[in-house]
Amino acid sequence: MASFSLLSSLLISLTFLFSLSSASPFSLEIHNRFSDRVRHWADSRNHPGVWWPQHGTAEYYAALAHHDRALHQRRSLATTSPQELTFFDGNATYRLSSLGYLYYAFVELGTPNVTFFVALDTGSDLFWVPCDCKQCAALSSPSYGVNFAFNTYSPSNSNTSETISCGSSSCEQVQSTCSGSNANCTYSISYVSDNTSSSGYLVEDVLYLTTETTQPQTTQASIIFGCGQTQTGTFLDGGAPDGLMGLSMSNLSVPSILANKGYTSNSFSMCFSEDGIGRINFGDVGSSDQSETPLLVDTQADLYNISLTGFSVGNSSYTSSFSAIVDSGTSFTYLADPMYTDIVTSFTSQVEETRGSELSAAASFEYCYLLSSGQTSAKIPDIAFTTQGGSSFPVNNALLTVVSAAGNTIGYCLAIGKSSGLNIIGENFLTGLRVVFDRERLVLGWQNFNCYDSSAPGPALAPNGYNPKKTNQVSVLENSSPHLTAMSSLVLLFVVTMLLM
C-alpha cells in the first residue's frame, strides 16, 4: 500500500467545485476524498503517491472507520447534545452487499477491549456476539467480501465480565431453560430466515461509547448480551458472522439498557444513505421539523409498528388501513395484499419499460423491467406512504438495478416482495432518511437527510451529488445503484433476499 504524501493528502481530501446558481451567487460542493469524483480528478493529474481503496471494498470501509476514530480525537462528527452517545469507533454504519445488505458497525466490548463488526437490527431484541464457540461462522471467508478477520468473545478473557445466573431478574426476560438459580442463564433465539438461530448464555460486560462533542468523553456502559456459542442458518453463511445488535423496544435491547441505566435518553436515530454509509446515535430525540407518526405498542412483540392510512404511486392515490414494522434488519420491503398488488400494478402502468420475466427469475422480485439498447435513464413514479396523523413517509429508493455478467445495466426491479400477511418496511425504503426511534414519546420520526453531515437536513450535497429529495427520476447508468456495485452476474442476486428480524 502506497502512503500519502502531505501535499497529495491535502490535495485529494477535499475538491472544491464552484458554480453559479440562481438561488445563490456562490455554491460549494465538497467530495469525500475516497469518492469517484476525486479519484478521477487525481488520476487526470497524475498525482504521485496517491492511493485510496476502491469504493465498496473492505479496505474502503476500514479506512472510513479509521477516519471516524481519528475524528473523535479532534472534533465532532455532528452537532449533538451532550447526552447523545455513539460507539467508541465512531457513529458510522456500513451496508455490505456480501453480508446480507444489512448495516454494520464496529463496537468495542470487554476489558481489554475487543472489536466486533455487528449487524444492526431494529427487529431483534438481544445483542449477541460469537463466544466460546461450539458452532460459529468462520472468522474469515472469501464469501464475506471483506479481508479483515472477525473476533470472538470469551468471558474468561475479560476482567469486567460477569455471567448472568438463572436467579437474576435479567434472566426472566429471556425464555431460558435454567436448571437452577446458580446456573448460567441460557438463551435461544430463532429468526425468520429458515433454520437461522443463535443460542448460548447471557453475560454482562462493558460496551465502550463516546459523546460527539468537541471534547469527547468515553463511557463504559455496563450491558447484558449473549455469549453466542451456537449459530445456525444464514449466520453461518455470511449473515452477521461477527454478531448482531438488537435495537428493538425489548428491555434487553441495547437502547433500552442505555436508557434504563441513565446513560442516554430513551431514543435513538439511524441514518440511511444512498451509498451505504449511515449513522447511529443513542439518545437522539430528533428535531422539531421532522415528520412523525405514533408507534403502536404491542405487548406480544417489541417491534416498531406504525399505522398507515394509504399510499401513492405517481399520480395514483389509495386509501388503505394497515400496520407495518419498520425494520433495519430486513434488506427489502415486504407487503401483503391488497397493498402489494395495488402498488405494483400502478407502478407498472406508469413506467415505459416492459416487464422481463428472465430478470424476475434471477432477481427473485416479481416486477422487473427491461431497458432498451442504449437506454441510460428511466422516469420512475414516486412512491410514498401516508401515516397515521397525516404525515407522508417518502420512499427514496424502491429500485434494484440489474446488471449482466458482462457488467452492463440491463434493467431494474421494484424491490418489494409479496408477504403472506406481515408488512415490513425494510432498509431499502429507509434510504435517504434519518429515522428517529423515540421510545419515550412512542413516536417514529423521519426526515430527508444527508448522512455525511448529520447536523443538516437534506437536500444537501453528498458524494456523487446525492440529493435525497430528488426521487422522480432514476439513473440507470452502469453500476449506478449501490445495491449492485459488488455484483457481477444475475445469479448473485439470489444472495440479497435474506430476511432477518
From TrEMBL:
The family this protein is said to belong to: Belongs to the peptidase A1 family.
Task: Provide the leader sequence positions.
Answer: 1-23
Name the GO cellular-component terms: plasma membrane
Species lineage, top-down? Answer: Eukaryota, Viridiplantae, Streptophyta, Embryophyta, Tracheophyta
Name of protein:
Peptidase A1 domain-containing protein
User: Is the keyword Heme assigned to this protein?
Assistant: no
PANTHER family under this entry? Answer: ASPARTYL PROTEASES, OS09G0542100 PROTEIN
**Domain Peptidase A1 intervals:** 103-447
| Source species | Rhynchospora breviuscula
